[in-house]
Structure formats: C-alpha cells, structure tokens
Design goal:
The complex is a heterodimer of chains A (126) and B (145). With 126 residues, chain A is mostly helical. Chain A has five helices and no strands. In chain A, α1 packs parallel to α4. The longest helix of chain B has 28 residues. In chain B, α4 runs antiparallel to α5. Chain B has one domain. Chain B is an all-alpha fold and 145 residues long. The chains are: A mainly alpha (126), B mainly alpha (145). At the A-B interface, α1, α2, α3, α4 and α5 of A face α1, α2, α3, α4 and α5 of B.
Chain lengths: 126, 145
C-alpha cells in the first residue's frame, strides 16, 4: 500500500502542478509585465488585476492541491524519492503542457533544457 | 533582460529550493499521515520548520508570478533550476557535506540545461501580440524617462 500511496501522490503532484503552472503562466501573460504596470499604475492596480483573474484563482487552487499532495507524499515516502521524482517529471510535463496550451515555442534548445534539468534534478536529489 | 529581471529570477531560484528543504525537514518530524486522517495535514503548518518554509515559498511565489508576467514558462522553469545547484554547492562548501559522483553529474546536467535555455529568447513573440507589445514598450520607456 505504501508504494501505491507514494506513486499516486507523485502522479497527482505532477499532473496538478503542471495544470497550475500553465494556468498561472496564462494569467500573468493576461495581466502583463508586472514591473511596468506597477510603475505606471501602482501596486494596488497590479494586485487587484492579478487577484481578479479567473486563471490565477484556478491556478492557486491547483497549486494548493499539489502542495497538500506533496505534504502527503513526503509524510509517506523518503524525501529523496518523492521530491526529485515529482520535481523532475513536472519539468517534462510543463514543457509539453506549455507547448500545447500556451503555444510557447518549445524549440530544440528548450527541450534539451527541460530534459537535462529533469535528469539533473533526479540525480541531484536522488 | 535587465539586472532587475535577473534579480527576480534569482529570487525564484533560491527561495523555492530553500523553502522546500524547510518543509521536508518539518514533515519528517511529524511522521506519516494516514489517508484516513488526511485532515490532520492542516496541523502540519503549526510546525516551525513548515511555517518558515511556507513564508519563503510565499516570497518564491511572488517572484515566480513576476517572472511569468514577462517570460515563458518553459524559460522560467529551467533557468531557475540553477537554485538546486546553488543549494548543493552550499551543502558542499559551507556545510561540508559529501557530494557523490551522481550528484556532481546532476549539478553538471542542470547547469547545462540552464545554459541551453538562457542562451535563447525569454519570451515567445506571437505575431498578433507584436504590435501590442511595441505600444507597451513605448509607453513604459516613456514613463521610465
């Protein structure tokens, strides 16, 4: 049962945090350059524009679910398995999701970056 | 990319891994949480390590949101993974922990990945957004002056 709990938690973390990252990235692109907006219209405008964005709110919900799945996973599995496995798989899931849902140009350079970092994170924390 | 933007990326890179380390230390103290008593996870935040981790992760989140407002997700994530390398080097040279060969290989791979992505553009330019962005640049540069 222990392995089932751990790998279920890792799968949930990866899928939900990729969903959250994509939603948050979309929200922040809709909001626009925070630094420039802050200088032009002040912090209050920036904050209210972010907090009223539906993608941002959904992204926060997804991130909260991912966060509690991580706590759940960490309470069962070794940190040396749960943290690197979920972090490393999330890099790959994000590259796929960003290409499909955000239409980011994921060229060869970015694929290499995602895969190298995913492998590196797995080795580093493993 | 301006110095200020690199500072934001550094915030994403460092606050995230340090916050995560604090969380894992706190959660190991509190022990396994049964799925039948999953609500007890709420009380984990009372642990000081978990609480400190959450504070750092809030700072991480603010920097992350700022970075995503002017850079692609597939740029921000690999670029800021250099934080893992910095943490490992801190562990090696300040805390005098031993680093195994596979960890050095991990450090090398992450550094290469960061090099790949950092040598490219930070933001995908969509044709439809080009003219819009030009206007925004003119407006913001006007304000800076």
């Amino acid at each position: 049962m222990r392995h089932l709990y751990i790998w279920t938690a890792i799968t949930v973390i990866v899928l939900v945090s990729a969903t959250g990252d994509v939603l948050l990235a979309r929200a922040m692109k809709q909001v626009g350059d925070v630094g420039a907006l802050w200088r032009r219209q002040g912090l209050f405008t920036v904050a209210s524009r972010i907090l009223r964005n539906p993608c941002f709110l959904l992204g926060i919900v997804a991130m909260s679910v991912a966060f509690f799945s991580l706590l759940f996973g960490l309470s069962w599995g070794d940190v040396s398995l749960v943290a690197p496995a979920s972090a490393s798989l999330t890099f790959v899931a994000n590259a796929i999701a960003a290409r499909i849902f955000l239409h980011e140009r994921v060229d060869r350079r970015r694929w290499m970056a995602a895969l190298f970092v995913a492998a590196g994170v797995a080795l580093l924390a493993g | 990319m301006t110095p200020r933007k690199y500072l934001v990326l550094a915030g994403v890179a460092l606050l995230g891994p340090i916050g995560d380390s604090l969380l894992s230390r706190g959660m190991r103290q509190s022990g396994g949480i049964s799925p039948h008593h999953v609500h007890t996870i709420i009380f984990s935040v009372l642990n000081p390590w978990v609480a400190a981790g959450i504070v750092l992760l809030l700072g991480f989140f603010a920097s992350y949101m700022t970075a995503l407002s002017w850079a692609d997700l597939t740029y921000v994530l690999p670029a800021t993974s250099i934080g893992y390398v910095v943490l490992a080097l801190i562990a090696r040279f300040l805390l005098h922990e031993q680093i195994s060969l596979s960890r050095w290989l991990g450090i090398l791979l992450i550094s290469l990945g960061v090099g790949f992505v950092a040598s490219g553009p930070a933001l995908t330019q969509h044709p439809a957004a080009e003219s819009h962005k030009d206007v925004a640049d003119v407006v913001s540069s006007g304000v800076e002056r």
